[in-house]
Design brief:
Mean pLDDT: 92
Low-confidence stretches: none
Largest sheet: 5 strands, parallel
Number of helices: 10
Bound molecules: magnesium ion
Strand order of the largest sheet: 1-2-3-7-6
Length: 314
Amino acid sequence: MNNSNQFVKNSFLFSLQRPFKTLFLTLKNLLPLMTDINHLEKLVIQVRRDILRQVHKVNSGHPGGSLGCAEFFVALYNELMEHNSNFNMNGKNEDLFFLSNGHISPVFYSVLARSGYFPVEELNTFRLLNSRLQGHPTTHEGLPGVRIASGSLGQGISVAIGAALAKKLNNDNKIIYTLCGDGELQEGQNWEAIMYAAGNKVDNLIVTIDYNGQQIDGATDTVLPLGNLTEKFKSFGWEVLTIKEGNNLQAIIKTMKEAKSKTGKGKPICVLLHTVMGNGVDFMMHTHAWHGKAPNDEQLEKGLAQNPVTLGDY
Ligand SMILES: [Mg+2]
């Protein structure tokens, strides 16, 4: 082969290498994320099993909203929050989470246990007398991870604002997260809190609304329409983000990270998380019927069959 032909051959090979190299680097960058997502998706399925089994065992509890928020909790405790499973109530130098809609305790307990806060076997004690896992989380049982009693609805945003202000006073630059049901926004005192947070530039706070459009007695639009939440929060001076696919882990992680990047800029942040109540169990989806109703034996088996064991039952 003469020099000219060799040059053409080398140029051709080089031109082939570049796209392969680009593809390789892209795959290399995506691989850790894909691995993590695979693990998190398995965790979501296991959390769904935990929710169904907890509620079924005592024939009591709230599976619908819990299932709808499984992806959010898994993302929050595994990808988003800088937190310490060696629980300390003073909460210094770590991100903190406050659950406002306390009735979705089955998902909260499952994710706390599977994040190392307490033994997963303790999920067996859900709603039993003298258990640390009461139907609505409380603090006096001392369950690691629980920072407020909740279930009296409409309180979480106010508590979260107080914690966010305390962090500012302590020169602690970590973030406060809270989750609030959409139906809770019918409680008037939330709007006082929402006004207060903007007026006092509580910009280390991310409030997520579980925007499933359902509440205990039916659709929020039927019970008491919430109106345009984006415009309402904006008019109160908040930064507002929306997650249309609120049961998609990657969508949640992407937008919640964007929300985090907007902290410290003078405005509190609201994330409208569009979830499906009962997500992952076909006969529980898109209805308020399973808001506070336990599955019977047959329904449990059906729900579990749709979510086969991934990481092991407790
Ligand atoms: Mg709701």
